[in-house]
Each structure stands twice: as C-alpha cells, then as structure tokens.
Amino acid sequence: MQRVLNRVYVEAAGETGRLSWAGIGTAVVAALACLPILAILWGGFGRPDEIVGASSVVLPDYLLNTGGLVLIVGVLATAIGVGTAWLTTAMTFPGRALFSWLLVLPLAAPAYLVAYVYTDLLAFTGPVQTALRAAFGADGSAWVPPVRSLPGAGLMLALVLYPYIYLLARAAFSAQSRSQFLAARSLGASPASAFRRVALPGARPAIVGGLALVLMETLADFGVADYFAIPTFSTGIFRTWLALGDRQGALQLAGILLIFVAALVAVEAASRRGEVTSRDRLSEGAPPFTLSPRHAALAMIACALPILLGFVVPVSRLAWLALAGGDRMAFGTLLGYAGNSVSIAVITAGIATATALLLGYAERRAQKRGVLGRAKRGALRLATLGYALPGTLLAVGLLSPLGSFDRWLTRLSREVTGIDHGLLLTGSIALLTYALTVRFLTVSYNAVGAGFEKVPPSLDAAARSLGATPAKLAWRVHIPLLAPSILAAASLVFVDVMRELPATLMLRPFDFETLATRVYRLASDERLAESSTAALLIIAVGMLPVALLNGIRR
C-alpha cells in the first residue's frame, strides 16, 4: 500500500515534488462548471412523487415539441451542411471559392433574429402575402404556409446552424485521399456514387460531431421557440421559474433536459474517434469532378439558397427597417445598452480565454497514464462541458444554490457593516458573468487547444534546456505562437455573449438591458422596426469571429 501511495504522489507531484498549479486550477474550474449540474440533480430529483405529477401535465408537450424540433433541425441542417460541403470541396463550378466562404455567414445571425424577420415578411399584412393577394386575389395568401409552427421553427434554426456541420464536413472531405476518388472515377463511378460509397463513410465522424453541436444549440434555443409560442424544455424552464414561481418544477424540467444533453455529449465524444487524414489530400489540386453547365447552375443555386435565406434576406430586411425608422430611443440610452453588452462580453471573453490557457497548459502537462493523468483528463472534460448546457438550464442551476447563499451573505454583511447594499451575487453582473463563462468556456478552450497542438513539445524542451523558467517559457515562446488562437478564442466568446438571450434574461440585474434583451423585448411586442437597429449591431459584431472561424477551419 505504501508503495502504491508513493507512486500516486510521484505522479501528482512531478519532477518538482509539488502539486501542479495547472492541475489544481483545472480541478477548481471543473468544480465550478459542475455546480449547476449538481444543483439540478440535487434539487430536481429530491421528490420523485412530484416528478410524476409534473410529467402528467407538461412533459408530453415538452417531449413531443423538443423531439420534433430536434428531428427537423437535424435533418435539414445535415442535408444543407453536408451537401454544400461536398459541392465546394469536390466539384468545379463558377463561384466555388466564393461560396466556400459565404456559406459560413449565416452563423453570424442569431436564430431569433431570423425568426423575427421571416415572421414579419410572411405575416398576413407583410410584404409577401400583400404582393400575392395583389397579384392573385384573396387566394394568394393560401400559398404561404404558417411560419409560427414547429416546422417553421425548425427551418429558422437550420438556416443558421447548418454551418457547424458544413465546416466540419468540409474539413473532413478535404482531408480524404484524392487517389480514392480518382480510382472510383476510373472505375465508372458517378459523382453521386463516389460520394455515397467513398466520401460519406470517411466523413461520418465529423458529420456526427457537427450534428451533435447543432442539436445542442437546438436544445438551448429559447428565442425562436418563445416567439413562435412552441412549448419546449427551454421555454418551459423559463416560464416555470419566472412566470409561475415554481422552483421545484423548473429544476425537474432542467434535470430531464440534462439527460438529453448528456446523451448528445456522449455522441459528440464518440464521434471524435475514427477520423482519418491522408497525405494525398482531396483539397490539393483541382477538384476531381467537373460539372456540366446545367449541373454547375444547379450547384450554384444549391449553395446560394442557404446564404440568401439565412443571411442576405434577414440582414437586408433589418437594414431596410433601420433606414426607414429604426429605434427611436435616445442615442445615449441605446449606446448604454450597447455598452452593457460589450462590457459583459469583454469581461467574459477575458476570463474564458485566460481559463482556457490554464486548461491548455494542464492538458499539455497531463500524464498520459496513471491515476493523475486519468483524473486530470476527466476534470478537463467536466470543465469544458458548459457549451452543451442551455442557458436556461445554467440559470436555474446557479440560481438555486447561490440564491440562498447570497441572501445569507447579504444578511451577514448588513449585520456587520450596518449597510443594506442589496444582493451581492444575484443582484450584480457577477452571476451572469459566471454563467456565461461556464457556457462558453468550451469555445475558447477549443480555439486555444488547436493552437497548442501546433506548438511542438521540442520547443519546450529546448527552452528549458537553455535555463528558461516556466513563466519565461510561457511569455517568450507560447504566448507569441498562440496569439492568433488567443485572439480567435476571445472573439468567438465575445460574439456568443453578445447574442446570448435566455441566461441574460434570467440572471441580469434589475434594470440592466443589453442589445439582445432590447431586441427580444421589442420583437416580443411586435415592434420589429424598432428592434432592427440593435439587431444589426449584433450581426455586425458577429461577422469578425465568423471570418476567424472560417480561416481556422481552412
């Protein structure tokens, strides 16, 4: 036993005989990231008899609507993402290089903004139905299907989420062997047959990984489902907690949603296995398939439609509304809302990027084997679980344990200082920043981790052999090499925080308005023209990280 304990200590201590600061930091981050999950499990499933009662009333609708929405979004996003990725990777047609970049643009538009725009365009009094009635009489309105429906919500989400699958599928197709396609072509295989029998099996892990991300975002959606009045788990948690004041019921719904999230996390983790690359890459040289003029025109239409429907039409409509009237609020007030959004985004991006660097160092120094190595890898996985957690789930999971602690802390401070300063945590931006950091830490960690993979360990060994301390190694070697990845990580977190809606609605301090909540409040009151100004600001900010993400994936 003593020998085993000595071995564990040696693994934990390393060469210096001290516990690693990166390992300790990783454990702390993992504990903080798991707090909302533990709170939901503890508070939601404490009374099984109440779970049965709640299930008989609300669960059937939530299950059917959430499941239907996941199915619709999954099918549409996969079809668009995989199809366009294959066309831009393996086919030759006019504008292929331009489409390859433009297909990422819908990722800059939040789904709830796209839903607001299409509801305005396709409403009975909107421009589309008005033009149809003018051209074809009263029957013209019958040609427009209802937008505020489950299929309509699925289409809105698919139009802005398909780039997740597109980016991963395009990278997988580009890394496949070029000679395999040339051999299939020489044996008489058509482009469709080569895709089905050669390309698709090899890219399946990447496609499944992208699909898992799309479904996570679908489960996390609040704005589209709430605006279309579709009862899903995300809207149900929000309504049960704030509108009905039922804390136990909200925790139970969050616990059930957590089961779906855990399943998607497992699928995403499993999808990482089996990816292969080849030295004879498909992306090198001219694409193996040259399309005829007719097929080239169809390929251009297939690539242009997602861009038009997911980005050009919503942005054009918002720009028209903003120029026609826009937000009539005083410029200083609107600028204050923008300042609130930017301040929260900057603080969260800074904390998340610094934490991602800590986790990156922990992974770089983690033992490949042994007790500590497995524990550290497990802690890293827990610390980066937040992106799979919807904003409503995080809000409920944090409000439950921290609300009581905050009230106790406030009473203690009032008794000691005699000053009634209100709630310290839930009454300030601290809790909101905490939740957003947990939510988007995965985004920054993935970007920083990709940068660390490009830094060979031999550089560390060379610097240490020349007498560099760990601090000097980080400052003189790692930081300059990681600068592009750090910038990408901070930018991606920044834009995600700018457009995050449910967590901000539930955790923001009183009278604290952001651009996202401003758009939500105005659009909920059918005042889309006034919300267009703030909406355009959100989309404009989202363009930079989308460009960075596209460059990283290339």
Short structural summary:
This protein is an all-alpha fold.
Structure characterization notes:
With 554 residues, the protein is mainly alpha-helical. 77% of the residues lie in helices and 1% in strands. A two-stranded parallel ribbon has the order 1-2. The longest helix has 35 residues, at 331-365.
Computed over alpha carbons, the radius of gyration is: 25 Å
Name of the CATH architecture of the largest domain: Orthogonal Bundle
Mean pLDDT: 78
CATH class call of the largest domain: Mainly Alpha
> What's the tally of helices?
23
CATH superfamily (homologous) name of the largest domain:
MetI-like
Encode the helix/strand succession as letters: HHHHEHHHHHHHHHEHHHHHHHHHH
Features:
two-stranded parallel sheet; 554 residues; 1% strand; MetI-like fold; mainly alpha; globular; single chain; 77% helix; 2 domains
What order do the helices and strands come in, and which of them pair?
Elements: H1 2-13, H2 21-44, H3 48-57, H4 59-90, E1 91-92, H5 96-102, H6 111-122, H7 127-136, H8 150-175, H9 178-186, H10 191-220, H11 223-227, H12 233-243, H13 247-271, E2 289-290, H14 293-324, H15 331-365, H16 370-383, H17 391-417, H18 429-453, H19 457-465, H20 470-499, H21 502-507, H22 515-524, H23 528-553
Parallel strand pairs: 1-2
Helix pairs in contact: 2-13, 2-15, 2-16, 2-17, 4-5, 4-8, 4-10, 4-14, 6-8, 6-14, 8-10, 9-10, 10-13, 12-13, 12-17, 13-17, 14-23, 15-18, 15-20, 17-18, 18-20, 20-23, 22-23
